[in-house]
Amino acid sequence: MKALLLVLAAFAATRGTMEQAKAPGSFFLATEAAPGRFSDGEVIANDAVSIPFRIDVVWRRLGPEAGRSMHVTVADAVVLIKSGKIALYAFDEAKLAEAGWIALPGYDTHQEHAVSVTQTASEIAVTIDGKPAAKFALATARTQIRPGVGMKGAPGFRTLIYVRAMSVTAL
After folding, report:
1. Tens of pLDDT along 81-123?
2. For a designed S-S bond to 78, which of 61, 71, 83, 100 qualifies (C-beta 3.0 to 4.6 A apart)?
3. Confidence class of residue 168 from pLDDT cuts 50, 70 and 90?
4. Average pLDDT of span 123-128
5. Measured in whole angstroms, how far is the alpha carbon of residue 97 from the centre of its chain?
6. CA-CA-CA-CA torsion sign (49, 55, 59, 64)
7. Domain ranges of the chain
8. Burial (0-12, 13-18, 19+ Cβ within 10 Å), 84
């Protein structure tokens, strides 16, 4: 296994802005204050990683939107996490509505949590604070991905998450 610690220079904000925090390797991610259904912020790695891989992030929401999701970007989907719930969004609203959200007792986005997402060619497994949280079947033909993290915020406002640490491990 080869672990790649992704430092701030290894990421690019695709939506919103990112700003280095005091701790090495940590940053703040802010949504862009766009009008619409929600504001959005996301950073992704500049370099691709091969599948299978694991992305580890230690984060917490600083804004008031506990009902809005934070996410981890994987190949062909995003893992959505909000207070008390988790889901997989594979860019299909009907499938998300059909599958629904899985209960995630005790998860509060305003508290710091360590989230690990492992993706293989056929499955995504999520652990939170070292405990299994969810598994999702998801077949992908892709061999590489530029993983990342992000979140939704209130429309027209900027909101923040604090990412204390983030790494990607090729498996």
Report:
1. 999 999 999 999 999 999 999 999 999 999 999 999 999 999 9
2. 71
3. confident
4. 98
5. 20
6. positive
7. 2-170
8. middle
Q: Which pairs from 117-122 meet CB under 8 Å and 24+ separation?
A: 117/54, 117/55, 117/72, 117/74, 117/79, 118/52, 118/53, 118/54, 118/171, 119/51, 119/52, 119/53, 119/54, 119/74, 119/75, 119/145, 120/51, 120/52, 120/171, 121/51, 121/52
What is the residue type of 111? Answer: Q
In single-letter form, the type of residue at position 90 comes to: A
SS3 72: strand
Among the listed residues 59, 43, 53, the one whose alpha carbon sits nearest the alpha carbon of residue 3: 53
| Residue 152: strand, helix, or coil | strand
Helix (H) / strand (E) element for 33: namely none
Q: Is the peptide bond before 105 cis (omega within 30 degrees of 0)?
A: no
Query: 2-170: which CATH architecture?
Result: Sandwich (2.60)
Number of residues written out for the chain: 171
Show the DSSP H helices in the chain as ranges: 93-99
The set of residues, in sequence order, having a beta carbon less than 8 Å from that of 98 and lying 6+ positions away, is none
